[in-house]
Specification:
By secondary structure, this protein is of the alpha+beta class. The protein has one domain: Creatine Kinase, Chain A, domain 2 (2-Layer Sandwich), CATH 3.30.590. It is globular and about 50 Å long.
Length: 278
């Protein structure tokens, strides 16, 4: 696999009995140099563990990577990190998210318009890869809903944007979007925020591959008024081949879980009606 663009991850986790210093030691011992730090948004050359007031649970914190080039080495590092988290019994809960920053410093205004339009069109497809609670999270709000009611409305608004500053203003300069453009000013990145917290290496790697692929493909699109159907298969086409099965598996897992939930709810409704004498 050839190396591509840089990215970084933020894994929100709950250590439980495992404190930040213990986790930092374990990761460093596994070859992933890690430090505990106070709350900050600084880019580091090592992994860092920082507090996050939005999280609930004992020893809840955020594990933040340095910028890494997406490739075999960084994928191996992600798998090592997830392995350490799981071996120590570090968990996630519903307060946890998983954020991915992708280098966008080479994107001009036209590329950024492509990315925003493409993200809005793929947003429902990407929502099928995250639990229902993350599809309308206050920490990751809908870009599509922000920009208009229909695709035509959104395209018109995006086309009219003179530059990336205007694109950011269209989102009210709010970073709590599924696709956060505010990171451009601070880090030269765009941030994907809608994924649920996880310590599962396949879920982490698959989502990162998709985010990197979307940003990279934004440089190749021609025109915003595309008639293309933005389906799951089209989304997979923007991901390197070897990572597509990870996203397929995740989609199937969530679809099966939602079918089980729907079946239980239907059964409960039937039982309530029977008890009421209907």
């Amino acid at each position: 696999m050839k190396a591509t663009r840089k990215f970084g991850v933020e894994l929100e986790v709950v250590g439980g009995m495992v404190g930040a210093y213990t986790l930092a030691q374990a990761l460093t011992a596994a070859g992933v140099r890690t430090e505990t730090q106070g709350y900050n948004h600084s880019t580091s050359n090592v992994w860092k563990i920082v507090p996050d007031g939005s999280l609930s649970g004992r020893n809840a914190f955020e594990l933040v990577s340095p910028p890494m080039v997406f490739g075999e080495e960084s994928v191996a590092t992600l798998r090592t990190v997830c392995g350490v988290l799981n071996n120590l019994g570090v968990k996630v809960n519903t307060s946890c998210g998983f954020h991915v920053h992708v280098d966008a410093s080479d994107l001009n205004a036209a590329h950024m318009k492509n990315l925003v339009a493409m993200f809005c069109r793929f947003e429902p497809v990407m929502d099928a890869l995250v639990p229902a609670a993350r599809r309308s999270s206050e920490w990751a709000r809908s870009n599509a809903a922000r920009l208009g009611r229909t695709d035509a409305d959104r395209v018109a608004v995006i086309e009219a944007a003179a530059n990336t500053s205007v694109l950011r203003a269209l989102h009210n300069n709010n970073r709590y979007q599924k696709l956060n453009l505010e990171a451009l000013g601070r880090h030269g990145t765009v941030e994907f925020r809608q994924a649920a917290g996880t310590t599962n290496a396949d879920k982490v790697v698959g989502w990162v591959a998709m985010c990197v692929g979307l940003v990279s493909s934004s440089r190749k699109l021609r025109g915003l008024r595309s008639k293309t159907q933005f389906t799951f298969s089209r989304l997979l086409g923007r991901v390197e081949t070897q990572y597509r099965p990870l996203l397929v598996a995740r989609r199937r897992e969530l679809a099966a879980k939602e079918r089980r939930v729907a079946a239980r709810e239907a059964s409960a409704r039937t039982a309530r009606l029977a008890n009421a004498g209907y």
